[in-house]
Amino acid sequence: MDNKNIQNLTEVLKKLNKHGVTEELRKEAIAIVSDINPIELSIAEQNLIEQGMNPEDLRHLCDVHMEVLSSELDKIKNDINPGHIVDTFIAEHDKILGFLTELEELNFEIQKIQDYKDNLEEIKALNTVIDNILDAESHHQREEKVLFLELEDRKITGPTRIMRMEHDDLRTKKKALKEAVENVSRLDFNEFKEMVDKASKYIIFNLRDHIFKENHILYPTAIESIKEKETWEDMKRRCDEIGYCSFTPNI
């Protein structure tokens, strides 16, 4: 682990959060991030949190990170076998991303409807896709109770702290969207549409962003830091005990 890399990236992240992405900072960040591994990136972010930076300020990776990290997922897939818990997490993410696309399309259609009528197909479909998104809870539980704990035991706490916070935020928004659909017949329809629009857009944007960070930062960090085959096997056993989503591919 290169402490100089970590220190340099920590300083660049401070500048990016303070000044925004200037072309000069962008080039500086790309030069550093291109030569840094996921653990070092995680530690740099952790350093900033420990120095007092609000985790909120690190929640959305800057465009520089996105640009450099875009190939990380392919690297992970080449390093693990089918059935590995990270492979399962990634496969579940693919399903969830599909649900988010459905939600985006349904919200667009619902916003065009003028009046509520019983048994609207769009409302039924919205209820189904929300249930699918809510069904991802066992995915989050496996992350929090197995993967995150293992990383935290290895003193990697910054990324998991941010991911837990995002899980909690998203749980609240998912439940609010579900409640809106359950009460559609009792709500003013324009009020209902506004609630759906606001919650859907929040969930779509933030969950896509969350998935990107887990796929490209958290999971590579885990693969890089947990080398023992026996540990992964024990983690798989613990994941099995928690259970899987209805949409989890065969594992």
Automatic annotation (TrEMBL):
The source's domain of life comes to Bacteria
Stored InterPro entries? DUF438 (IPR007380), Hemerythrin-like (IPR012312)
The source organism is: Clostridium cellulovorans (strain ATCC 35296 / DSM 3052 / OCM 3 / 743B)
Q: Name one GO cellular component term.
A: plasma membrane
Q: Identify the residues that the record assigns to the Hemerythrin-like domain, covering every copy.
A: 84-222
Write one Pfam family the protein is assigned to: Hemerythrin
- Domain DUF438 stretches: 9-74
Name of the protein in its database record = Hemerythrin HHE cation binding domain protein
